[in-house]
Design goal:
2 copies of one chain form a homodimer. Chain A has 333 residues and is α/β, with parallel strands linked by helices. Chain A has helices at residues 24-29, 42-51, 62-72, 87-98, 146-150, 167-180, 192-207, 218-225, 230-240, 278-291, 296-310, 322-328; strands spanning 6-11, 15-21, 37-39, 56-60, 77-80, 102-103, 115-121, 127-132, 152-158, 184-188, 213-217, 243-247, 253-256, 261-264. In chain A, the strands form 2 sheets. In chain A, strands 6-5-1-9-10-11-12-13-14 form a 9-stranded mixed beta sheet, sandwiched between helices. A 5-stranded mixed beta sheet of chain A has the order 3-8-7-2-4. Chain A is globular, with a radius of gyration of 18 Å. The two termini of chain A are 23 Å apart. In chain A, 56% of the residues are buried. Chain A binds chain B through residues 20-21, 49-50, 52-59, 68, 86-88, 91, 94-96, 98-99, 313-315, 317, 319-320, and chain B through 20-21, 49-50, 52-59, 68, 86-88, 91, 94-96, 98-99, 313-315, 317, 319-320.
Chain lengths: 333, 333
């Protein structure tokens, strides 16, 4: 294994978030599943946008948020994802490159527009997401550059990639290249409903060790093992996974290996504003820590400070340097 | 004078803000005038965007921000401004309509794209603005609907309208219609450099009573009267203006009439994040108060709570209901 060119390379849906505040009864009237990510078509996208309040636009996408976070810690990063050559695609490209991330996936020059996620943030800080996949549908195995994957310590994949029709093949191609180069493959389960759609395949990825490091939150873990009992699910995970982290909101997280389960507390916050990106940014800190050779507890603490930053403002990209934040918390970067 | 259909109608440049954090040395390297609004062409816009950090997009425009604020207080509002029928123009239109503002100016179907303002927010919370006027250049007197102007208690105009080539005519047409209907005409001086460009015309608007209510901050007032002494400038203003408000950041504001000058304190804040929109939102509160028949001090206090809200987060549109905020502060709405 040669020295890595990137600490973390992410593959995911390249999405621009359209974020508005909403009352709970708006979600009810719109028939939205609170806290979930729902896939929508273009007509539904238009209907939601017409009904929702004043919004801001910010680059998003689960794995893209994570990679942006790793870059903010000072990590060397790359991202693979598909936009169109339209205004939102240009904004996505600007934002991720301006964060120092290598992003060279060619945009689509025809077909559907850049993916959009209509994010409704309720007064409790919870976010409810409606995603129009658009051009992200067109991520294709040919967009996977073998040299880049082989040159990344960790290749990080989002479960949401199971939704677009060709992206799964891109995902599996990347995982094989990474393992052939003795690199680490990480996966986030993304969303409990996403797990519901692809449970058997996700379990197989973990059990076959196609995935070396798994991220899940409690709801995703419960969905994966079809149980409402956390300890039952955690025990099953311990049997299946080489390394896994389960995030539990204000309860912190557990790091699970076949040998042991370790709890790490959440970082304190002043004010919960918007939970969008909490899981993504936790993953950023943990991945950065692992890629730099830190132990699991230190890596989880890096994840915790990043998650705490992101939930105290609107949007899923950090507003301040995570490197400085880690240093202020006495953590190594 | 018949009952008003709108409390406030605003006319201004319809702009989408592209907001990023920046260090002071970025402004120096880019040769930007800190705290000012500088007009830029398309090539310079591209250069700034390429150089600036990850950004968010949010609807802006000085008078548009003010009108959005008046609507958030519960006021009946209308806005006149020109966008193109592109992605950013659609976002601007969505955001202002979703706030409850009547906005019917037909978009341009060809020509330059929707106006963009590249806003750099430095660690001290100060904002530095670079505006590509684009489609806002094409606001034309024919976009002024006489019935709407005559039906608004106050027609509010931004000094920035002196920059696009035809907008000044639209401005003067609207002012005449408003006065013919016995309505109030208000103007903000917008920016000290803008005052520098159009000083004689702005002074004439005030002295000829084409403007009944003038908004300025300290720098704009100093520029208007070409003096660095606040008291000298305030005394000159008192001679010229029917009613004026001068905002002084954390020192609050003064309300100036020919009879007297009254100081009103700023509202307290927890944390200064981004001063973008502070003046716009102060004007929103003051205009709402005047339109609803409240006294000048109460109106200024409404302005102060709105300004305090806007400077505690990124962006120039309120994140919470100004009506609720006013009520929590014991102010009438």
């Amino acid at each position: 294994m040669t020295n890595a060119r990137y600490d973390v390379l992410g593959i995911g849906n390249a999405i621009v978030d359209v974020i508005a505040r909403a009352e709970d009864d708006f979600l009810v009237r719109q028939g939205m599943q609170k806290g979930a990510m729902t896939l929508i078509d273009e007509a539904r996208a238009r209907q939601i946008y017409d009904a929702m309040g004043p919004a801001i636009e910010a680059s998003g996408g689960s794995a893209a948020n994570t990679i942006h976070g790793v870059a903010s810690f000072g990590g060397r990063t790359s991202f693979v994802g598909k936009v169109r050559d339209d205004t939102l695609g240009q904004a996505f490209t600007h934002d991720i490159r301006a964060a120092g991330v290598a992003f060279d996936t060619p945009p689509a020059f025809d077909g559907p527009s850049t993916a959009c996620c209509y994010v409704l943030v309720t007064p409790d800080g919870q976010r409810t997401m409606n995603t129009y996949l658009g051009a992200a549908q067109d991520l294709h195995p040919k967009d996977i550059d073998a040299d880049k994957i082989a040159g990344a310590s960790i290749t990080y994949l989002e479960g949401y990639l199971w939704d677009p029709k060709n992206a799964k093949e891109a995902f599996l191609k990347a995982a094989k290249i990474a393992h052939d180069a003795n690199r680490t493959v990480a996966l986030t389960l993304s969303d409990a409903f996403c797990v519901g759609r692809y449970r058997a395949e996700f379990l197989d990825l973990v059990r076959s060790k196609t995935v070396d490091l798994l991220f899940a939150n409690e709801a995703e873990l419960h969905s994966l093992y079809e149980t409402s009992d956390f300890d039952t699910a955690a025990a099953a995970l311990r049997k299946d996974a080489k390394l896994a982290v389960v995030t539990r909101s204000e309860k912190g997280c557990i790091v699970v290996t076949p040998e042991k389960t370790t709890a790490v507390p959440a970082a304190p916050i002043e004010r919960l504003v918007d939970t969008t990106g909490a899981g993504d940014l936790f993953a950023a800190g943990f991945l950065f820590g692992v890629a730099r050779g830190h132990d699991h507890v230190t890596s989880a603490r890096l994840g915790a400070v990043a998650a705490a930053e992101i939930i105290q403002h609107i949007g899923a990209r950090p507003e301040r340097s995570l490197k400085s934040l880690a240093q202020e918390n006495g953590l190594p970067v």
